[in-house]
Amino acid sequence: MTWHNIHGHDDVVELLRRALARRRLASSFLFTGPAGVGKFTFAMKLAEALLCHARPEEMLDPCGQCPACMQVRAGTHPDLTVVAKPKDRSFIPLDLLIGDKEHRRREGLCHNIAMKPMMGGRKVAIIDDADRLNAEGANSLLKTLEEPPPLSVLILIGTSPAKQLPTIRSRCQLIRFRGLPVDVVAELLGSLQPGCDPAEVRRLAEHCEGSLQRAVELADPELWTFRGRLLAKLAEPTLDSVRLAKAVLTFVDEAGKQPAARRERLRKVVALAADFYRHLLHAQSGAPEADDRELRQHVTSVLESGAGDAETTAARLELCLDAAEQIDRNANQTTLIESWLDELGVIGG
Question: Which domains can be identified in the chain, with CATH numbers?
């Protein structure tokens, strides 16, 4: 079953329908879950349903044909504000939230959502990738969250509640989105890449942990090849951090001359390492083994060698998460790679 061609989140639809039927829809939501499972698409369709002129909002069934629905799809609806991190910035600029220095609190998302609706009965605002809110940006939202304007809905989209300030988490209704089923990912990936071998599509769907975005990334043969080398090195009893750092630097540099491209490739490498330690920690805690055959092989190798314990693995995972945050802060890549892998080696030494 799908909701307006959005797969895998029918439980969230029913939760929101019940809230609307009781007239108890929250004013602020925090959508969390893996990247690439449709959270932003869902938020936009929810906005369309809340602003639709033809059908009652409690139906959550936008007609798709009225002026309001068409304006939402075109991104021109005056009662809908969407904010996202610009590609050339590490964090969501404060100006997008509360206006520039000359227009503080007179422009931006917080100002827009506080205004009286121009077309419908609600104002809706969406912050995509709220993980990229810095402390100043998050704090600028507090007044709006503490004193929400009447009939307003603010939706923050992120990957984990832990990446939001406690003051943000406590003022939003948390909605968790699960990873997509393998069959759904395979179907969506096949439609995006119609010429791809069905067996390859299936393999990617089985390895992406329910994320269409991750499946697309793994379709890169260079990344897939490097993943195998990386997993093998991480599974060794003693991590050769110097040699691995050289390999990672070379792989990152091969992404091209653009800093953004190299930064994105490094982000993927760190994510692969974090994924390995996350699955290893699960296995050390007695959780079911991963479906990924190659990953399971290296995890099993570590378990059989008796190298390290759950505490060591957790510390290494934390280092990977810290490294990912440093990438977003535009840290020097060479220094970051060397220090990250050196610390991984020291923990296991």
Answer: 2-176 (3.40.50.300), 183-210 (no CATH), 220-348 (no CATH)
